[in-house]
Backbone:
């Protein structure tokens, strides 16, 4: 199946710094990528939809200026957590939609392995 | 507002028996439902899905049942195997909305020997 990678897998940073997380689709083109956040023992919460070549669409309650998303190519989207605080510590997961698959149901979104962010 | 709910946070089943994971939803616009399996510190992997025009879909040991009138779906795993131990998320989608998935809260399945 399609592969989506995330880098880094784990990052620890100091409060006030910015952290960039990359999401790549390795063997397909993804015009749309999604960024999720998961708190311990909770559901995956959609943060934003990243569209190649255009601005991201953020879900209600997600700060655009804090979580900067760039989808510069059909295989790469980045999430930058700016001025990180301890409450931003979480597990961030991206998914990528195969544009050629159409809506075939279950496997049109492929998930990355996630990035564990810890802000001290 | 949790539109997709999994009311059982955990479930323990003996190997070889049937595992039944339940999911309820409130948004009647959802017309496609999916089940994902997730291990700690990993992204979800797709298991099985069902369209709202069907009431059952089967794939090997996995069967998903949909009861639209009750806004309820369930995942049956039979026979359960130790490797099935993971967190299972149901998710729902309104087709035509850029594939935005709404996830349930997850159920941790433990298959014991």
Residues:
């Amino acid at each position: 199946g399609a592969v989506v990678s995330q880098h880094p897998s784990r990052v620890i940073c100091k409060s006030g710094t910015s952290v960039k997380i990359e999401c790549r689709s390795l063997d397909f083109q993804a015009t749309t990528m999604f960024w999720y956040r998961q708190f311990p023992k909770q559901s995956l919460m959609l943060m934003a939809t990243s569209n190649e070549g255009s601005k991201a669409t953020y879900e209600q309650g997600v700060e655009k200026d804090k979580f900067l998303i760039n989808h510069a190519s059909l295989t790469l989207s980045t999430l930058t957590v700016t001025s990180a605080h301890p409450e931003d510590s979480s597990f961030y997961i991206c998914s990528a939609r195969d544009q050629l698959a159409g809506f075939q149901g279950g496997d049109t979104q492929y998930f990355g392995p996630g990035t564990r962010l810890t802000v001290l | 507002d949790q539109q997709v709910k999994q009311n059982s946070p955990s479930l323990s089943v003996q190997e070889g028996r049937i595992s039944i994971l339940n999911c309820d939803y409130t948004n009647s616009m959802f017309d496609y439902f999916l089940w994902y399996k997730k291990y700690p510190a990993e992204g979800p992997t797709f298991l099985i899905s069902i369209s709202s025009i069907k009431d059952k879909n089967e794939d090997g040991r996995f069967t998903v049942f949909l009861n639209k009138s009750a806004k309820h779906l369930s995942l049956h795993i039979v026979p359960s195997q130790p490797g099935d131990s993971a967190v299972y998320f149901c998710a729902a989608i309104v087709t035509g909305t850029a594939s935005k998935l709404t996830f349930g809260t997850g159920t941790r399945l433990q298959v014991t020997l």
DSSP finds no helices and eleven strands in chain B. The mean pLDDT of chain B is 93. The radius of gyration of chain B is 13 Å. Residues 24 and 72 of chain B are 4 Å apart (CA to CA).
